[in-house]
Amino acid sequence: MTIFDEGRGREMDRRSFMSGTLAGAAALGGLGPFAGAVAQSTEMTALMVNAMLGPTLKPIVEEEAKVTIKEGAFLSGTDTVSRLTAPGGARYDLMNSSFAFSHPVVMGPKAGAERVQPIDVSLIPNMKYINEPSKEGIGERDGKVYMIPHSWGFDSILYNRDVVPDNDPYTQSWSLLFEDKYAGKIGWWDVAHQMLMAAGLYLGHAEPEKMDRNQLGEVAKFLISKKKNVRTFYTTFAQGSNLLASGEIAVGYGIVPMRVELKKRGFNITGAWPKEGVLSLISASYIPKDSKNVSAAHAVINAMLGERYAKALSDGCGYLSASKFAQENLTDAYKKEYGYGIFDGSVKHYQLKFPTNMNMWIETWSRVKSA
Amino acid sequence: MAAVSSVPPRRRDLRALLVIPGALWLLAFAVAPLAILFAMSFWTSSIFGTTTDLTLDNYRVIADDPIYFQVLLQTLRIALTVTALSLLVGYPMAYFLASLRGPKRGVFLVLLFLPFWSSYVVRTFVWLPMLGRNGLVNAVLLQLGIISEPLDWLLYNEGATHIGLVYVYTLFMTLPLYLSLDRIDRNLIDAAADLGAGPFRAFFRVVFPLSMPGVLSGCVMVFLLACGAYVTPQLLGGTSGMMFGNVIAPQYTVTNNWALGAALSVILVIVVFLCLVIFGRRVRLNDIFIGG
């Protein structure tokens, strides 16, 4: 006899339950491949900023390209190129990330070292509509095209206007993201490239991507000294948006789609236009070598340069289409709101470029985070 | 021993075959991944990919930068505190469960398990609306007039990491404790009472020592799990409640530095293994893993 003598004899019940659960899971697992095979015919996979295929945009692309798109969860440009080079292959039919940042990785150091396959431009008739500034985002080598731009985006500081007034001089600079005035209300995006670029620009580096070890050390020292002002890091755009929406932070590093989405949901959130320049990017598409649906990938690239998608893009997610169609009949207020000044030079911007020594950047950011 | 030797040699040989599935499972899912991890820690990674070029650079990077050592120490400290707190929370619960009889015990066991039917991430995430600036706790305190401004320190710090980890790992402490307490012979308590021991003395001299296998088992499990925690410190820890898992994970998921991630993982495995060895010198492994 034991003091706590009940509860015996339940072992079989628990085991039965467990084995039943496992059997159910196995049965479902067994159905998985079959279900996948059934739905495969026009399906393709894509990895890009998810907002580019938001609720108003994805149907346009799917309709025009006559495909069903399965999206991966986009984390950052760094993550995207990491996946491209990961052991085992990219496992996406189409990928899309910042041109200037991704170009060295995507194209490789020399001819033949490209990590993607050439794009058959005859299947992209809408390519002729790419506007002049965006042509810089075409990745070519030896007459072959490997990267095709489809939009512009930019990163800036998002802030809650209920806490930070628009006329606060801090909103005119990246200082808003670092300095003490809004201590405890700031969120940093947990990505080495963007955070060090922003800090580098703020600290006066004309070409932050070329910072050497000592300069990076100085930036790290600065960031560590300002970490006390930071409430938390966030790893995904959704997490950052939630932090802003819930009032946990009032200031945070953010991409345009975050601002647009929060505004749509009624939050008094806007983006700053720092005098050092917003961090801009030309979003370019490329087709990994192991793409299993190359024709669908081409069709999607073409659809994303088409008139319908181009005209819906800014309202849909805040990005600026690389297509000439997008800028027809826009009001000045609309252009100002979405930053179309990037095209005519009236909005100061600096492109997110690939750092000279990316590994050193990653080490530096790890040090900042861990300090 | 006597039972084993009484089995005819041929049958004994056949019984040895039963070890094969388990051994294969261990080989495939424990030994092989660890071996790959170990090998990878000497490979070369960059944003352009990982190659099998052998190097000691990953360990050099870790040795050169004291930050990694500091985060490792912080991780062990947090894991220890979480283990102690889980024991404090789990013991009374286990004692209460073990003292119940009949259907009541089943009901309370289900209640204990109920939150664990949802995913780990959801269970961690639930603390955000509870402890946040505009969360439940602040709302109640404001409503009661106890505070005039929301408290910021409830979330995004080491304390929040502790709360989250204790919550998600308490079950791993409570179950072995419950099993251990459930096995204690009631006659021993009665005998202690007959010999003049009060309830407290009987608990500390009889029940607690006899529940030690459960205590050890729970503590080791919680400690091991807490050492490898990633999601909870990521979601609740803010800038100060980071743990070693938060240094390892981005090497794989963000920066493509698999080799450095592997080297960091190897170090964590070795440190945790050493902790187990040191612990194992004081208690038998059997006591730890099967609750005595």
TrEMBL record, chain A:
<dbReference type="GO" id="GO:0019808">
    <property type="term" value="F:polyamine binding"/>
</dbReference>
<dbReference type="InterPro" id="IPR006059">
    <property type="entry name" value="SBP"/>
</dbReference>
<dbReference type="InterPro" id="IPR006311">
    <property type="entry name" value="TAT_signal"/>
</dbReference>
<dbReference type="GO" id="GO:0042597">
    <property type="term" value="C:periplasmic space"/>
</dbReference>
<protein>
    <submittedName>
        <fullName>Extracellular solute-binding protein</fullName>
    </submittedName>
</protein>
<keyword id="KW-0813">Transport</keyword>
<dbReference type="Pfam" id="PF13416">
    <property type="entry name" value="SBP_bac_8"/>
</dbReference>
<keyword id="KW-0574">Periplasm</keyword>
<keyword id="KW-0732">Signal</keyword>
<dbReference type="InterPro" id="IPR001188">
    <property type="entry name" value="Sperm_putr-bd"/>
</dbReference>
<dbReference type="GO" id="GO:0015846">
    <property type="term" value="P:polyamine transport"/>
</dbReference>
From TrEMBL, chain B:
<keyword id="KW-0812">Transmembrane</keyword>
<feature type="transmembrane region" description="Helical">
    <location>
        <begin position="78"/>
        <end position="100"/>
    </location>
</feature>
<keyword id="KW-1133">Transmembrane helix</keyword>
<feature type="transmembrane region" description="Helical">
    <location>
        <begin position="107"/>
        <end position="128"/>
    </location>
</feature>
<keyword id="KW-0813">Transport</keyword>
<keyword id="KW-1003">Cell membrane</keyword>
<feature type="transmembrane region" description="Helical">
    <location>
        <begin position="160"/>
        <end position="181"/>
    </location>
</feature>
<feature type="transmembrane region" description="Helical">
    <location>
        <begin position="16"/>
        <end position="43"/>
    </location>
</feature>
<feature type="domain" description="ABC transmembrane type-1">
    <location>
        <begin position="72"/>
        <end position="279"/>
    </location>
</feature>
<keyword id="KW-0472">Membrane</keyword>
<comment type="similarity">
    <text>Belongs to the binding-protein-dependent transport system permease family. CysTW subfamily.</text>
</comment>
<dbReference type="Pfam" id="PF00528">
    <property type="entry name" value="BPD_transp_1"/>
</dbReference>
<protein>
    <submittedName>
        <fullName>ABC transporter permease</fullName>
    </submittedName>
</protein>
<dbReference type="InterPro" id="IPR000515">
    <property type="entry name" value="MetI-like"/>
</dbReference>
<dbReference type="GO" id="GO:0055085">
    <property type="term" value="P:transmembrane transport"/>
</dbReference>
<feature type="transmembrane region" description="Helical">
    <location>
        <begin position="202"/>
        <end position="231"/>
    </location>
</feature>
<dbReference type="InterPro" id="IPR035906">
    <property type="entry name" value="MetI-like_sf"/>
</dbReference>
<feature type="transmembrane region" description="Helical">
    <location>
        <begin position="258"/>
        <end position="279"/>
    </location>
</feature>
<dbReference type="GO" id="GO:0005886">
    <property type="term" value="C:plasma membrane"/>
</dbReference>
